[in-house]
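hey m, so remember when u said the tokens were messed up on ur end? i reran from scratch. heres the input so u can diff it against urs
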Amino acid sequence: NTRAAYPIEYIPNAKIPCVGPHPKNVILLACDAFGVLPPVSKLTLPQTMYHFISGYTAL
């Protein structure tokens, strides 16, 4: 699991300043080795916030 960061100016078609409206949909990719989440889940806002803030991943 590798992560990297670089300046936004390195992306040719980036809109600066990098702001926009709130998203209507959020896709949460999770490694769920224990099957806690179904393969496709429509979560409520509180459920989404909980799993996102928890950094949800099953080891």
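this time it looks ok to me. Residues 23-59 form one domain. if urs says something different then somethings off w ur setup not the seq
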